[in-house]
């Protein structure tokens, strides 16, 4: 047992001011998207249904989107920021009543774990504006085996201009 007598009086001063700030635990910053708007700006720019889905993680009723039956060549773009998300060539009829794709355009979407509704799903959002698009499941067709189950109201369709070559 060592003697615990009064030691040298070299005590460290408490951390204050700038020093305390430097040692504060770093927090994870929220994901920042290239296109960012306030809720009020989004509400003004979007239809009520698109706002509910894109900005409030809503889901449209199945079978309600005209994009379900869209079969022309072209691209499905984000209703929020116009970024091309999916090509018609990757669309398939999943029978769910939601526009479904086996792959997104490279780099167009991001994903994160969604633990709402008592299950763990993978949420899909626009990589440019962060708008919620739908979910991706592992029961899709070849070649990817993935099923991107999207809300039609979160997207718009741009037919390919065939005169464009
Ligand atoms: Zn977007």
TrEMBL record:
Q: Does the keyword Oxidoreductase apply?
A: yes
Q: Which GO terms describe its molecular function?
A: peptide-methionine (R)-S-oxide reductase activity
A GO biological process of this protein is: protein repair
Looking at the record, the residues that make up the MsrB domain are 39-160
Q: What Gene3D superfamilies does this protein map onto?
A: Peptide methionine sulfoxide reductase
Pfam families listed in its UniProt record: SelR
Cite the entry's keywords alphabetically.
Answer: Oxidoreductase
Top-level division of the source organism's lineage: Bacteria
InterPro entries per the UniProt record, alphabetical:
Met_Sox_Rdtase_MsrB (IPR028427), Met_Sox_Rdtase_MsrB_dom (IPR002579), Mss4-like_sf (IPR011057)
Catalyzed reactions? L-methionyl-[protein] + [thioredoxin]-disulfide + H2O = L-methionyl-(R)-S-oxide-[protein] + [thioredoxin]-dithiol
Q: What is its EC number?
A: 1.8.4.12
Q: Name one GO cellular component term.
A: cytoplasm
The record's section on SUPFAM superfamilies has: Mss4-like
Q: What class of enzyme is it?
A: oxidoreductase
**Matching NCBIfam families, A to Z?**
peptide-methionine (R)-S-oxide reductase MsrB
Q: What is this protein called?
A: peptide-methionine (R)-S-oxide reductase
Q: What is the lineage of its organism?
A: Bacteria, Pseudomonadati, Pseudomonadota, Alphaproteobacteria, Acetobacterales
């Amino acid at each position: 047992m060592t003697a615990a007598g009064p030691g040298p009086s070299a005590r460290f001063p408490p951390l204050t001011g700038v020093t305390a700030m430097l040692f504060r635990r770093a927090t994870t910053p929220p994901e920042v998207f290239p296109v960012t708007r306030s809720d009020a700006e989004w509400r003004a720019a979007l239809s009520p249904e698109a706002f509910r889905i894109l900005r409030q993680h809503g889901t449209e009723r199945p079978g309600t989107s005209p994009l379900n039956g869209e079969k022309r060549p072209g691209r499905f773009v984000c209703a929020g920021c116009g970024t091309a998300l999916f090509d018609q060539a990757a669309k398939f009829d999943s029978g769910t009543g939601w526009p479904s794709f086996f792959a997104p355009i490279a780099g167009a979407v991001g994903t994160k774990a969604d633990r709402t509704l008592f299950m763990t799903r993978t949420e899909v959002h626009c990589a440019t504006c962060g708008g919620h698009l739908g979910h991706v499941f592992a029961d899709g067709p070849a070649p990817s085996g993935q099923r991107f189950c999207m809300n039609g109201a979160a997207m718009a369709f741009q037919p390919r201009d065939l005169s464009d070559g």
